Here is the input.
Amino acid sequence: MKLFSRRESVLLISLLLVSGVLFLVLFLLRGEGDGEWDAVIRYRGDVIARLPLDTDCEYPFECEEGVNRIVIRDGAVFVESADCKNRVCVRHGALTPDAADVDFISCAPHRLLIVLERRGDE
Amino acid sequence: MRRFSSSRRAGVCLALVFVLLLPLLLPACSAAPKRYSTVIDGPFDTATQLVIYASKKSDADAFFSLFRERLEAWDKLADIYYEYDGINNLRTLNLAAGSSPVELDPRLLDLLEYGLSAKETSGGRVDLLLGPVLSIWHACRTAGLDDPANARVPTEEELSRAAETVGCSTLVIDRDDGTAFLPEPGSSVDVGAFAKGYATERICSELERLGYTDFAANAGGNLRVSGTAAGEKWTLSVRDPAGAGTVGEVEARGTASLATSGSYQRYYTVNGVRYHHVVDVDTNAPAAFGWASVSVLTEDAGVADVLSTALFCLDRETGVSLLSTFSSPVSVLWITETGEQYAFGAFEEGGGK
Here is the structure.
């Protein structure tokens, strides 16, 4: 007693497999999009750079008001040094990704803002 | 060998086709809320970061633009340094002191009434009418930051003259006419101790009434959260006043606010001595209770703002007895200039609500 012929069964099983693989791929892609964070650098309100947090780098920010040395290290972003009046940006410390936190680095004298955003969420 | 009937086969095929189409349903499943964030630069002399968990980008954008519109409006209304075309604000009110009542936006009358009541809530430590004293310190601080070599401290004489004006000051609010009036010439209001927190609370509660939830606003270090971060509790952290990083944090879901008053944010230096911006109503000088920062966690962002200023201008014992007058739970983290911490409420337990 057979529901499908042998050829039909093979066809259906392979279709099921393709469907499963497709589902898995789409699901994983979605997960990846949720995990990646960027440090978004804004000057006078405009986004001037988007630096991936998973890549260590140094970003010397220069504007007519002055200089801030922005560093990404071990998945965190911080201002290492600056020539502004109050150094609030340096003393703020590092920003690390936390989906349940709302935190940013601000250098008011230089009109500079650093916020973390999840890639694809902007 | 017998095959199943064709109708049975068709049914099984249909079920299989449905299974095959499942992946196409995935985008619908991913309508799980996503994290959207933006920064509003400018209002209240600071930057405000907003985060919202929403299923649709259009919802997040609508939330952001409403928030921005409201915050910019409040900023103009509460401004004591600049006037704007077409609106009467607190500067208009201060300039008309001793001459005439000024017609004001109802929201501004609310803020002024809140300011008058803050004197009571703060145990007399926050005075809406301290304007004349605060403006002298503000002028010296601004000049001192621009030209540090010639920075100066206000003289006893100018401060006591200003304090005399403060002593005679009253504010008359007429709700029927929609006006406010400072009868004493030279008197002025200053809402710096609570305007940002009050405005944040008003905006957030309005947006909650409109159905928005699961959002957080960080207005230059003053936090207000609503709902959850996609099911998780929000993290509200206190920055280390002495160095980099955070020193304490609490987790909260639902409505919660955290405000900090600190001597480390706004100050200037004269002959090596630091003068910060939180002025004690008794001495007319920067509060000197040894606090580097005082952080207050409670539901209402306006109350948190008033209380953090009040507690910064009180010793801890008096502060704790002031807290006992509040019906809603209040938690506090005091940090001294030498780095000692004193916790009260949720900070003590290290937990949250």
